[in-house]
């Protein structure tokens, strides 16, 4: 199953809007960031330098994003047909918008009625979004960075939100790849044979040297139980015990 | 409450390790990305171009990260005192490591015993981490990007992981009980000594019997890494190796 055959997984009607971006490299890097998470609709509002070689260079092959970039003069035009607009802010600015975490923001975008156009808006690298622009948003999304060094690079903010959007899309589908085919784990009975073999081996190689065996055996048991060995791993370990025992027999037999 | 007065919120013993980074700009951008989420410990393994103006330029003021960068020649050195090491990969490569989502990886790093040094490792932009380097990791972290365009920019991968770490830090303050006090885990350097001892023991007891050692050693490495032995457990196991080797010596010396 590829992304192309499962359009419902990634909403194609989510657009990323970059407002008054200063550095064209950030536009390219944002395009790449979106594309890694399956989003391809990028709208630029009054970019300072566009087109520009840095856009292509930093996009690292995100051609379908670049080819479909739309450039408009203001945010109102960029979001005219959108029914949900979230604005990303480094900090609230006297516009009392509901504030969402990236996780909740992504969830909200993804759960909007399926045919609705929705938008995620990012402001200028230095000045962010203007109050008039924030007022066009239904809620603000704030990435929880540390006080004192709170401003993420623009493209990295896009990456974090695109990542959360992908998680929201995958939610309900397992996030992890199918588990690596692995050998069956040892059964409890096999573990008991193993511990018996281990105990005998310790005796044969004179590990205890007169001390009580119990503490050591208990610690080893705890260790190997916790390790949850596969049957194959147990076989290797028991092969090691066999050879250690063989050496002990050879050593002992020479005592005569 | 600022970050400085609540040190327990952001673990200072989480280090980000960048291995064989090609583009110094990515180092700077990664430094910034870490810093926004409160992490300041960056280790560079054999960076291609360092120092470099692009590091400073892209770091956008993350001075405390830059001032404390450590440069080392290999990954073993970078993680020698770490008790948990997670490696970020775009894709698994035939090294059967447990695979974690960024969320679970961050949770695991954050929940390690509070005084443990832990590491998050990123490979070269093109080639990622080598198999030998992945084998030094306890698990792989995979950012769920789309098939067909799966490779995030290095600094953006750092940003996503740092972001998840911050969420884990913010989340864990209220919800998790203090971890059970347990013995300290073995460090990466102690594990390497252990594997060396194990390898020699296998030779001494004639385990391989003419077969190539590699597959067995790799399986045993995977098993013991996964088991996350405590220092004390390692000592017991190495004691067993010592006695097995002693038996082998006695057996061999009697051949004359």
Automatic annotation (TrEMBL), chains A, B:
Superkingdom assignment: Bacteria
Stated name of the protein: tRNA (cytidine/uridine-2'-O-)-methyltransferase TrmJ
Gene it is expressed from: trmJ
Pfam families per UniProt: SpoU_methylase (PF00588)
Function: Catalyzes the formation of 2'O-methylated cytidine (Cm32) or 2'O-methylated uridine (Um32) at position 32 in tRNA.
EC nos: 2.1.1.200
Gene Ontology molecular function: RNA binding; tRNA (cytidine(32)-2'-O)-methyltransferase activity; tRNA (cytidine(32)/uridine(32)-2'-O)-methyltransferase activity
Enzyme's top EC category: transferase
Family: Belongs to the class IV-like SAM-binding methyltransferase superfamily. RNA methyltransferase TrmH family.
